[in-house]
Amino acid sequence: MKLLQTTFRTIVLVGVFFLGYLVLPGCVSTTQQQFREADTGIEEGEVIAILRRKSNTRNETEESFIECLTEKTSSGQGAIEVMSDREFVDALFPWFEPRSAPRNVDEMPRYFENENIRETLEQIDARYIVWVNGTTQRTDQSGSVQCAVATGGIPACFGFLTWEAGSDYEATIWDIDRGITVGRLSAESKGMSFVPAIVVPIPFVARTQASACASLAEQLKDFIAGKDPVEE
Amino acid sequence: MRIRLTLFSLAFSVLGLSLLSACAGNITVTADATVPTPIVDPHPFNVGVYYSTELVEYVHEQKVADRGSITIDLGRNQKTVFDRTFGQMFQEVVHVDSLDAIPQNVAGVLVPSIIRVQLMTPRQSRNDYYEIWIEYGIDIILPDGTKLDFASTASRGGREDPEARRTQVAWMIAAYGKANKQDYSSFMDKADSALAEATQNAYRDAALLIVASLANIADPPRRGDPRIKSAVREWIKENSQP
User: Fold this and answer.
1) Is B221 on the interface with A (CB under 8 A)?
2) Domain B27-240: which CATH class?
3) Where are the domains of chain B?
4) Which of chain A's residues have a Cβ under 8 Å away from the Cβ of B12?
5) ipTM (interface pTM)
6) Considering CB atoms only, which of A56, A107, A151 is closest to B1?
């Protein structure tokens, strides 16, 4: 009987922890910026390609962020048809691999001089290329949480754990038809996560990457549609 | 407060041990060859390709301090990688079963081999990436049975590649692939998936280096040094003439 009670308490403790992790958000603040260089618009049937800037050095944009941005830009209000990074680089193989991809948008015109690249882009009807650069970094972790089992078989955790995370991403939008950069968007999210534990640990996790992704996706949809941001 | 061992601590001990064993256990990696067809114009001549048993059965095993042993079956994908790449680079690619009988309708037989493989885990390199380097050598056997090698480069007035001299192969390719551990983070250990992606990326890099070396392309710009020998370029030039 006592064994069953202890098992039940353990399950409840772990359940509360994971529920807190999933439900309770930490504090996140997001700053977004937009810089328009030319007018934009997209016609039916045209697609945009969202690419992460790649290199064989470290600090590459996470694939998970690009997947999130692709999913959010191609769904919801004002959705745009998006060609994923993988589909695009496969269609244009091998010219957008880490070793061969343009390092910046200034190099793009040289790529479009290649007849094979030009023909492929026409076939897939890609109108804009969105280059995404940036990463999420976790910093300043401090404190600790320790768990033990007290008299009576009651499991308990005590302590306080905290860390800061920052997600900083920038998107440069290249108009394939006109061969120019039409604008730059950025989203910077900062957040503090903490896990207070008095018997039960309750995590408040700041999902900075998800916040930056949502912010950049909404900006991107509005920007491509030609809408200017509303001044608050 | 008296602390005593109960089911709670026992459960966490089991969980901890299982996680530890996931970190320390041996890993077997099976990667698919996801090399797309390159968009390039083929050279106007035929080549043969010979896959040695050593290549198609190549298995890399490396002891890694924090993981035990990592085993990657590289051989199973080599035919796919080279068939897809060479297949788009030349008019026709003929599979050759033996180097003793070279078909007369080919300008040469390409013989790829794996010279060296190295991998790194994030814990070893202290960064976020699983990384793999695959060093390939590609020999070219001419129709008369002789090998296009560093000696023929010098005789043709080309620049010698010191790496080719060391390994005695005509053409060296150092392919690199990596995968971010952040894309594979979870409560379960996913090192095998991350290493599989790194391996796939290395295959793509190998294909890129072959294409960039063999294609007569001025633009887009090429990165790095594909270490193609002057002799290989000369061989392509000679066979491309009508």
Assistant:
1) yes
2) alpha beta
3) 27-240
4) 147
5) 0.76
6) A151
